[in-house]
Amino acid sequence: MRSFQVADFHAPLKEVEQPTPQPSGTQVLIKVKAAGVCHSDLHIWEGGYDLGHGRKPLSLKDRGVSLPRTMGHETVGEIVAFGPDVKEADKGDLKVGDVALVYPWLGCGQCTTCVAGDENMCLRPQSLGVYCDGGYADHMTVRHPKYLLNLKGLDPVTTAPYACSGVTTYSALKKVEKDFDTPIVIFGAGGLGLMALSLLKAMGGKGAIVVDIDARKRDAAEKAGALATVDGSAPDALEQLTKKAGEPIRAVIDLVGNAATTQLGFDCLTKGGKLVIVGLFGGGAPWALPLIPIKAITIQGSYVGNLRETQELLDLVRAKKIPPIPVTTLPLAKANDALVDLQKGRLVGRAVLVP
Ligand SMILES: [Zn+2]
Ligand SMILES: [Zn+2]
Questions:
Q1: Residue range 139-152, pLDDT digits in tens
Q2: For the CA of 135, the nearest ligand
Q3: 287: which of 32, 72, 99, 120 is 20 to 30 A away, CA to CA?
Q4: Domain residue limits at 188
């Protein structure tokens, strides 16, 4: 099998040829059909996160990410073989030849958090494409068939990003579901922002005002059905938001997560409002502490989503025929170029690698 691996943080990905693994135990071997390139792959590639206030960057190496590593946590593949310990009941509706989305946010599988179904919150993460090898390859093994969600006719390339950007967005939207009768303010009109717009509509929301500093991305958001857009770098961005909302803003989803967006997101909220931070751009918290109690603001973090939410999302996509977000397909051999394009902000929508 061929894969593209991070051999050193920051260094170009290395092409590696090795024998295709045979699935052991309860593993499933898949032939990769599509692998999304995610912004968080940049953080893995760069080796960490900026924590602001001159703090030492949050190092992924210290958190157990070892190299070499095949990235890729938005993977769709065709089932090639089940391991010897997979029972018929484990397979559910899956058989060899079926095409499935890989749920990548695996935990240890044993702690109370994992047993409760929130493997994405496990303290001993084994996420595919982060702590274990992922989909920047032509083949991949998955620990157990329960992490493979049958596409049942959905398109592999446009469905792949649902494993990360999709479920991340879905889980964040669920955290502000009670405010769906008001305009939601969404920061960031990249891949996640465009996905948030279509999911919000499918979930029955009134709509969203999208903030982005890039005019091309605001354009894409308007085409995707945003109620309005605002340039976050405009000196009167706050006034524009208030005016365009036309009513108190009760919910903000920040898909960027830097000091400027979380500041504006916080400032535009009405009393009792909620700021959900999803983006990992980095930096330090900008808020004046007394305003958090005075405005009774809830600030909540949201990190990907669990297996149940991922299944709900695929069911929603199928039932509501959610239109695919714009994707750019690239051959797997261009994995490195895709990362560089993403780093330089040259991509509109999502890059998906196809072996
Ligand atoms: Zn991701
Ligand atoms: Zn666990």
A1: 999 999 999 999 99
A2: 1
A3: 120
A4: 167-301
Of 301, 327, 345, at which residue does a domain stop? 301
211 within 8 A of 230, measured Cβ to Cβ: yes
pTM score, whole prediction: 0.88
The number of residues in the chain equals 355
Write out pLDDT tens, residues 90-106.
Answer: 999 999 999 999 999 99
Domain identity same for 185 and 321: no
Query: What's the 342 CA to ligand 1 centre distance in angstroms?
Result: 12
Distance 45 CA to ligand 1 centre (A): 13
Count of domains in the chain? 2
How far apart are the CA of 121 and the centre of ligand 2, in A? 8
Query: Residue 22 C-alpha to ligand 1 middle, in angstroms?
Result: 27
Ligand with an atom nearest the CA of residue 113: 2
Judgement on whether residues 133 and 229 belong to the same structural domain of the protein: no
Ligand 1 center from residue 340 Cα (angstroms)? 16
Which CATH number covers residue 347?
3.90.180.10
Q: Among 260, 277, 301, which residue terminates a domain?
A: 301
CA 329 to ligand 1 center in whole angstroms: 17
